């Protein structure tokens, strides 16, 4: 089984808020002009934030049951 985890590169985030607007479960917010994950548990790993981020600052990592991080899928 694989799980996906949201990862945010704050250095790349320009604070546009597009990812926050597209999040269907409101798991993201803006804090100090940067995207912030409110709760990993709230996130449904749909990937809309990754798809819409123009700066590639937010992405999903795939994690196997053994904790191994794989390429994004």
From TrEMBL:
Keywords: 4Fe-4S, Iron, Iron-sulfur, Metal-binding
Domain 4Fe-4S ferredoxin-type: residue ranges: 4-33, 34-63
Source taxon at top rank: Bacteria
UniProt GO MF annotations: 4 iron, 4 sulfur cluster binding; metal ion binding
Protein name, per record: 4Fe-4S ferredoxin
